[in-house]
């Protein structure tokens, strides 16, 4: 398979730009108020999240590239691209809602939208490249876990955290 470096760079720029922007919001919350929350027992240590997310973002960036590079239909490539970019945008919105403004209820609604959209993306990936879909599956699983954590945070704290 011939590598299309333009598409590869595009895929990684999109993924890691979303990660960097979301990371800014995450860092704000972690530095200012997150440690004061009651946490679900299954919450991993803070150190785990950047490691896992970096690996997952690298995997979904590669999967995204495989699909964009192998899909023959421009219409379908455009659909997958818009869904994928939309999912990344929702990640930024989730980080903003949860960590920057402490609105755990809004964050839960956003992460449920990410769950639905990422499932749709995974199915589209499956139709184009089984390898891409399998590379995307750990991300999908982790997002479902994040949904559980978000709901558990609401249960233990409230829908909106008062940031002082």
Fold and architecture overview:
The structure is a single chain. 79% of the residues lie in helices and 0% in strands. The chain is an all-alpha fold. It has one domain: TspO/MBR protein (Ferritin, Up-down Bundle). α4 runs antiparallel to α5. The longest helix has 28 residues.
Q: Total helix count?
A: 5
Give me the CATH fold name.
Answer: Ferritin
Question: Any idea what the CATH superfamily is called?
Answer: TspO/MBR protein
Overall 3D geometry?
A: elongated
Q: Cα distance, first to last residue?
A: 54 Å
Class computed from helices, strands and strand pairing: mainly alpha
Mean pLDDT across every amino acid position: 96
Total tally of structural domains: 1
| Total E-strand runs | 0
Low-confidence segments, given as residue ranges, are none
- Architecture in CATH? Up-down Bundle
Helix content: over 70%
In the CATH hierarchy, what is the class? Mainly Alpha
Q: Give a short account of the largest sheet.
A: none
- Evaluate the radius of gyration: 16 Å
The topology string of helices and strands comes to HHHHH
- In what range is the share of β-strand residues? under 5%
What can be said about this structure in brief?
By secondary structure, this protein is an all-alpha fold. It has five helices and no strands.
């Amino acid at each position: 398979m011939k590598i299309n470096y333009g598409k590869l760079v595009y895929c990684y720029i999109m993924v890691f730009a979303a990660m960097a922007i979301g990371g800014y919001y995450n860092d704000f919350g972690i530095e200012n108020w997150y440690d004061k929350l009651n946490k679900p027992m299954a919450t991993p240590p803070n150190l785990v999240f950047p490691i896992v997310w970096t690996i997952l973002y690298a995997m979904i960036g590669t999967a995204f590239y495989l699909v964009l590079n192998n899909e023959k239909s421009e219409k379908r490539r455009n659909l997958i691209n818009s869904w994928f970019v939309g999912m990344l945008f929702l990640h930024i919105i989730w980080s903003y809602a949860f960590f920057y403004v402490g609105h755990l209820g809004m964050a839960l609604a956003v992460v449920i939208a990410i769950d639905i959209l990422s499932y749709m993306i995974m199915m589209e990936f499956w139709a184009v490249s089984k390898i891409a879909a399998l590379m995307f599956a750990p991300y999908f699983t982790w997002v479902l876990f994040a949904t559980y954590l978000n709901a558990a945070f609401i249960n233990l704290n409230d829908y909106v955290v008062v940031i002082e």
